[in-house]
Amino acid sequence: MSAPNKSYDPVEVEALKPEEIERMRDAALAAVAAATDLDALAHAKTAHTGGASPLALANREIGALPPQAKAEAGKRVGQARGAVNKALAARQSELEAERDARVLVEEAVDVTLPYDRRPAGARHPLTTLSERIEDIFVAMGYEVAEGPEVESEWFNFDALNFPPDHPARETQDTFFVEGPEGPGGSGESGVVLRTHTSPVQIRALLERELPVYVIAPGRVYRSDELDATHTPVFAQVELLAVDEGLTMADLKGTLDHMVVSLFGEGMTTRLRPNHFPFTEPSAEMDMLCYVCRGDSVGNPDRPCRTCSSEGWIELGGCGVVNPRVLTACGVDPEKYSGFAFGFGIERMLMFRHSVEDMRDIVEGDVRFTLPFGMEI
Ligand code: PHE
Questions:
Q1: CB-based contacts of 138, cutoff 8 Å, min separation 6
Q2: Which of 174, 198, 255 has most ligand 1 atoms within 8 Å of CB, for mutation?
Q3: In 10 A of CB 246, how many CB atoms?
Q4: From the CB of 199, is ligand 1 less than 6 Å away?
Q5: Which residue CA neighbors atom 9 of ligand 1 most closely?
Q6: Looking at residue 98, what is its pLDDT?
């Protein structure tokens, strides 16, 4: 910047000469007009209005002028800068509008284009629901236990306190596996397709150190016809806890925790007397209808399709482990007690997701599975 000087003639300051200012303004306006995109405009802006631009430098020279010359020079430079800023703003919005219009065209998605990627599959909802149930119990310290699907009658029935010729063996609609016929062979192999996951209770008690806390999901078989509510192959989850001092109250608390974890706060279960050879006392367990929460009962104005306005949904069987089962597994029933429950996962999947036909679950059509997504 030049030093203040009383005898200073503004016309003598090169940068402030009117034709110089005009030249700077015109150069700036030309650069703005020539900018064809927002980047180029940003460059033009820095070059012509930034701190090192000719107009900014000229502006600084004004301070060095004698007072009487400042006003006129200030006006001239100010007008030039104003014109440049106005042109910049106008070009900026023009270029932004152009960019927005271009993005709309370039990034448009044509939803009618044919689907040509290899479609990704989805996990079967039975698997994800089963894993979700396992997770609830693993978080409580339970271990996941497994057993064979082709099972010896002893594990499937005898050790579970089914008497040898008891009709209960038939009521489970058992598939018996054929053995050798002829001399020495009776045709009876003593092997069945397991009718429930309860034999895993026996295996767990025989294989593990006490206390035992296991959750056993798995496939089971019963000679039912496949229809909307039955399938000869289905999935169950079995739970077994054997420790010192366990009671029916622990069973109830565990069931309540499970339904709250699966269906949300406020859920609960109820037990109704029943009979199973391997539990005593035994109960049928129901959970509160998670849709109407019981509000549909006696309320014809608000019927509930999920529980048929019963207020409760039947889940499966449960009870305190029969001391005979503990004895068969070498566990002292005087010292230890336990509880168990088992239920079908297809049924839970059906009411949890309003699946109306069990065949949809077992047929393996990907169109059924996909809407459940890739939940892991
Ligand atoms: N195994 C029984 C069934 O399949 C269910 C059950 C499991 C009942 C554990 C009591 C205890 O019907």
A1: 144, 215
A2: 198
A3: 19
A4: no
A5: 341
A6: 94
Long-range pairs of 113-120 with CB within 8 A, sequence gap ≥ 24: 119/366, 120/374
Distance, in Å, from the CA atom of 177 to the CA atom of 287, rounded to the nearest integer, reads 36
Ligand 1 mean position, distance from CA 343 (Å) = 7
From the centroid of its chain, how far is CA 56? Answer: 59
Q: Is 279 in the pocket of ligand 1 (CB under 6 A)?
A: yes
CB 201 less than 6 A from any atom of ligand 1: no
Tokens 């016809």 correspond to what residue? 225
Centre of ligand 1 from the C-alpha of residue 218, in Å: 13
Contact between residue 302 and residue 296 where contact means Cβ atoms under 8 Å apart: yes
Helix then strand count (H, E) for the chain reads 13, 10
Is the model's pTM score more than 0.90? no
319 within ligand 1 shell (Cβ under 6 A): yes
The residue with tokens 């059906």 is 350
Kindly give the distance from the C-alpha atom of residue 277 to the centroid of ligand 1, in angstroms, as a whole number: 9
Model pLDDT, residue 8: 52
Q: So what's the pLDDT on residue 121?
A: 75
Backbone torsions φ then ψ of 45, nearest 5 degrees: -65, -45
Residue 316 Cα, ligand 1 centroid: separation in angstroms? 7
Q: Per-domain residue ranges for the chain?
A: 10-106, 125-372
CA angle 200, 205, 208 (to 5 degrees): 110
Cis peptide before 125 (omega within 30 of 0): no
Distance of CA 276 to the CA centre of its chain: 37
Q: Which residues pair with 285 in a beta bridge?
A: 271, 316
The best mutation among 278, 314, 339 to test binding of ligand 1, ranked by most ligand atoms within 8 Å of the C-beta, falls on 278
Q: How confident is the model at residue 118 (pLDDT cuts 50, 70, 90)?
A: confident
The token duo for 73 is 């020079």
Structure tokens at 54: 């000719």
Q: How far apart are CA 113 and CA 333, in angstroms?
A: 69
Tell me, which fold does domain 125-372 have in CATH? BirA Bifunctional Protein; domain 2 (3.30.930)
Ligand 1 pocket residue status of 317, Cβ below 6 Å: yes
